[in-house]
Amino acid sequence: MSVIASILVVPVTEELFFRKYIQDGLTINYKPYQAIIFTSILFAFIHIPFISLFYDFMDFSFHRSYITLFGGIISGTLFYKSKSIIPSIMFHLFWNLTSYIV
Which residue ranges traverse the bilayer (predicted)? Predict the structure, then answer.
């Protein structure tokens, strides 16, 4: 996957799916903080590098998912407080850009 896709396309699609679709749907039946936490856990789960369990050349680490959990909580809170998907998308874009620069 190209760096540009990781910085521009992935954040938009992930935020639309996790915040707009899942979190919005969960807030119908659950408290907002419960929806944010559950959605953030799912978001972190997809970032676990499961493929590395099967290949010796990749190191398995939960570090990426642990950090992603906190990013998901921030994105979820931004989405909930602003009532708009734009702040969480912008945060995710900045997060991914920063991870490539650093």
Answer: 35-55
In angstroms, the first-to-last Cα distance of the chain is 18
Return the closest-CA partner of residue 36 out of 69, 84, 66. Answer: 69
Q: Six-digit token pair at 99?
A: 């991870």
* 30 class by beta-carbon count within 10 Å (0-12 exposed, 13-18 middle, 19+ buried): middle
Give the domain range for residue 89: 3-101
Does residue 22 contact residue 34 with C-beta atoms inside 8 Å?
Answer: no
Distance CA(22)–CA(25), nearest Å, equals: 5
Helix (H) or strand (E) holding 46: none
Domain count, the chain: 1
Per-residue pLDDT of the chain (102 residues; tens, 9 = 90+): 588 888 889 999 999 999 999 999 999 999 999 999 999 999 998 887 766 666 665 566 677 778 899 999 999 999 999 999 999 999 999 999 998 887
